[in-house]
Amino acid sequence: MPHLDAKTLIQFSPSTHTPQSWVDLGSGSGTFTLALAEHLPHGSQILAIDKRRSELTGIPSSHAE
Length: 65
Prior knowledge:
single chain, alpha+beta, two-stranded parallel sheet
């Protein structure tokens, strides 16, 4: 799925500018992990978890807007 489509599917707008912590279970290659990162306040953290550890290598350790 293209990144823009994943970002559009996430109908979320945080009610605060305070950094948040999230867990993405079954994150795979990170399509939705990165889309979520664009919706969260600066300084937020997402813990990506997948049973196939090799999938996680494509997800950057930090994300710049």
